[in-house]
Amino acid sequence: MNRARRRLARSGRGIALPVVLVIASMMLVTSSAWFEASLLESRNANLVADHLLAFHAADAALSLCTGALVNGSLSVPSPSQSGEPDGWRQQATFEAEAIAPVSTWPVSVRPPRCLVEPWRVDSRPAVRVYVITARGFGASDDTQSWLQVQVVFDGSHVERHWRRIVARPF
């Protein structure tokens, strides 16, 4: 019986090291996968925070410009043509005519800007309509948020029609 135990002990001597190495390698692979996943989640969280920053900058600019237009402290020329204005869609026009209601915005690469364009609606000649487009930036120029509101003055009544521009104009 003693001889059988010795033979069994000899056959199992070299198995411990490979088992430990397999377990250690599995732990390293799992750790590496978790590390990559945490890096991806961190990058996604930073991207979402950057887009939120741009959205809030654009929203603040839109609110300030709309308030200035409603209060009468912002002068806008009369509309020259009918149809929805599209100056906000052209980069050169937006850059030349947009105003910055605040000089800086925290963490943003540039201050938010807004463009106020008059709109002549032929079906309602008694009303004054304006399209206000705001652009906010995140930590880089590539992170932008575009928001827009249509403000309708009908006598003493003011209507606001808000919309978000999903893709930035070119």
Largest sheet: 4 strands, antiparallel
First-to-last CA distance: 88 Å
Multimeric status of the protein = single chain
What value does the average pLDDT take? 88
- Supply the number of structural domains: 1
Structural class: alpha+beta
Could you explain how this protein is built, in words?
Helices cover 43% and strands 22% of the residues. It has one domain (25-165). A hairpin with an 8-residue loop joins strand 1 and strand 2. The radius of gyration is 31 Å and the shape is rod-shaped. The protein is α+β, with helices and mostly antiparallel strands. It has 3 helices and 4 strands, in the order H-H-H-E-E-E-E. A 4-stranded antiparallel beta sheet has the order 1-2-3-4.
Question: Would you summarize the structure shown here?
Answer:
With 170 residues, the chain is an alpha+beta fold. The chain is 43% helix and 22% strand.
Helix-strand layout with pairing:
Layout: H1 2-11, H2 16-71, H3 91-97, E1 113-119, E2 128-137, E3 144-154, E4 157-165
Antiparallel strand pairs: 1-2, 2-3, 3-4
